[in-house]
Amino acid sequence: MPFQVGEVVEGTVLNITDFGAFIQLPEGKTGLVHISEVANTYVKDIKDFLKEQDKVKVKVLSMDKGGRISLSIKKALPNQVPQERNKRDYERQDNRNYNNISFEERMSKFLKDSDERQQQLKKNFDSKRKGSSYKKNTNF
Fold this sequence. Notes:
Layout: E1 8-16, E2 20-24, E3 30-34, E4 55-63, E5 69-72, H1 86-99, H2 103-131
Parallel strand pairs: 3-5
Antiparallel strand pairs: 1-2, 1-4, 2-3, 4-5
């Protein structure tokens, strides 16, 4: 094999699934980067971090006798977070802006966001209650 467990190699993203990404490795081998091994932050949607045909550096975590290869992007670049897509960039900018505001402004934003979430929950709850009406069974 052209690589060993613990080695960092470059590969190409072949396919993205809900649980991870399949990476084309040297000599035609394919390995899987589990969603938990994509970034140092929580990954809800892997497509925010990777797209097909991206070139990525991966660390080989394990290779079993069945030929399955387990990979990690976050361990291949221990001091860096892989480049992320637009959604993450906006969240980072929001965090930077959030740190530059006063306590009162933070509290105001928190209360507004909280109120919006409560209204959305109430709306969802009310719509579910209306959709499933309870009917008594009068045929004994």
